[in-house]
Amino acid sequence: MKKIIVALFVATLMLGGTSAFAAVDCTKDSPIDQVGDWFATLGKDGMEKNAVLAERKANRVAACAKREAEKAAKKVQQAGSDMKKKMGF
Known about the structure:
Blueprint: H1 2-16, H2 18-21, H3 31-40, H4 47-87
């Protein structure tokens, strides 16, 4: 009986709790990014290929971090306005 309860608890955490703790990993490449990288490096070799890949990866990480920072700022502003409403300002 205890094993079933533990299994249900773990399944509930895995299925329902992941969205609450999900963080965006800006360093992962999607298949679309990989195809774009392949086209960008087509015909290049060695250092030139590595430089193009590094630049594209850095640009993607910077853009992702900027989007996440804007989302966080929006949430903070929303929380601040909600707090003002609750306090009556």
